[in-house]
């Protein structure tokens, strides 16, 4: 399965592409950042991000697009641009019939490091390790895009196919599933990952 991860942003939108093999072995395919010029008007910036994302989907033909879910920040302008870029990624995928999954930054950190509050450098190191890269993926937007793609590949739901049992989960997947179940019990809300 080819998974394209997207770390949405209006100035820099990270794109990472990986392959998840039958045995859940992950392989690096591509990493890049789609950029828009902050000097352009908002509509032209959005068009640049959309065109860049559409080109990546056409080029790599992913089976799934995994997008980092927008979360609240103090800077409303940043949230707005991030949400718009996430919507463009969803639109580009939907127009091509590619399913979309949304994962929070905490879910991505938990899936990769086993710690939902991991520092950015820890995530970058684990991304490089998991994908067998000799150097850390740069810039940070690119590393985040790869991490959200890896998150989708390693998520507990969907990682198990047919008659597979929980014993096939990695330790990080097991901790993630347990944390998700605890959060659901605490809040009384079902959370799909």
Q: What assembly state would you assign to the polypeptide chains in this entry?
A: single chain
**Helix/strand-derived class?**
alpha/beta
Number of helices: 7
What letter string, H or E per element, gives the SSE order? EEEHEHEHHHHH
Major β-sheet annotation:
5 strands, mixed
Binned, the helix content reads: 40-55%
**Which sequence of strands runs across the widest sheet?**
3-2-1-4-5
Low-confidence stretches: 158-169, 183-193
Cα distance spanning the termini: 18 Å
* Count of DSSP strands: 5
Q: Using the alpha-carbon principal axes, give the shape.
A: globular
Radius of gyration: 16 Å
The portion of residues forming beta strands comes to 15-25%
Give the integer mean of the pLDDT values: 83
How are the elements arranged and paired?
Elements: E1 2-7, E2 12-20, E3 26-35, H1 42-60, E4 64-68, H2 76-95, E5 100-103, H3 105-113, H4 120-131, H5 140-154, H6 156-159, H7 171-187
Parallel strand pairs: 1-4, 4-5
Antiparallel strand pairs: 1-2, 2-3
Helix pairs in contact: 1-2, 3-5, 3-7, 4-5
């Amino acid at each position: 399965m080819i998974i394209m991860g997207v770390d949405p942003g209006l100035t820099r939108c990270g794109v990472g592409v990986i392959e998840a093999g039958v045995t859940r072995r992950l392989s690096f395919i591509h990493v890049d950042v789609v950029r828009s010029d902050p000097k352009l008007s908002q509509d032209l910036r959005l068009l640049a991000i959309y065109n860049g994302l559409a080109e990546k989907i056409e080029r790599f033909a992913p089976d799934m697009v995994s997008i980092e879910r927008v979360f609240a920040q103090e800077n409303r302008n940043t949230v707005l641009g991030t949400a718009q870029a996430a919507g463009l990624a969803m639109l580009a995928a939907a127009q091509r019939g590619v399913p979309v999954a949304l994962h929070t930054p905490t879910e991505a950190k938990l899936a990769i490091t086993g710690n939902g509050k991991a520092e950015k450098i820890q995530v970058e190191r684990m991304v490089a390790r998991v994908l067998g890269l000799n150097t850390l993926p740069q810039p940070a937007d690119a590393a985040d895009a790869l991490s959200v793609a890896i998150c989708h590949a390693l998520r507990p739901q969907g990682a198990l196919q047919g008659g597979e049992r929980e014993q096939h989960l990695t330790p990080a997947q097991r901790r993630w599933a347990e944390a998700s179940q605890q959060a659901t019990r605490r809040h009384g809300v079902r959370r799909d990952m």
